[in-house]
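During the reporting period the student researcher (J.K.) took over the structure-prediction task from the postdoctoral fellow and processed the backlog of single-chain submissions. One of the processed entries is reproduced below for the supervisory committee.
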Amino acid sequence: MQEGILVLVLYFNIKFMLYTLWCWLGFYWLNPVRKSMGMALGFGLLRLVAGFILGLGLVGLLTQVASARNRLGINLNSYWVSLILLRWLEWSGISYLIQLPIKSLSILGRGNKDKLWRVGGMVISFVSDLFVIGGTISIFGIPC
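J.K. obtained the following structure tokens:
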């Protein structure tokens, strides 16, 4: 049990550090006038918390609408497609916040740098999950 808690603490700390660094890079690329490590820390934490809450919601929803007889109780194809879309939306929201004071959110991205930054955030999200692919996710089924 203690080992599982340690894995969770490491998992969330690694994600938080990676998300914060990625947000810092986002300021540098997308809105260098506003760049601030404090804001990057805040947006990294926001992304982590939003990912946890929305990930719980996604798993809960999929257990109802796309259930299956496996460890997670959900259809894995539906899970991965939904998770990819969810992560695109999560990084789109952070991109919008970084680029403020823009007047509107663009779900598809505001140019190549913005799209590349969002995809990079998604890659970071998935790669950081590999850290505990056999541990936290298989125990709790919570993507962040």
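The committee noted the following: The two ends are 21 Å apart (CA to CA).
J.K. will present the remaining backlog at the next meeting.
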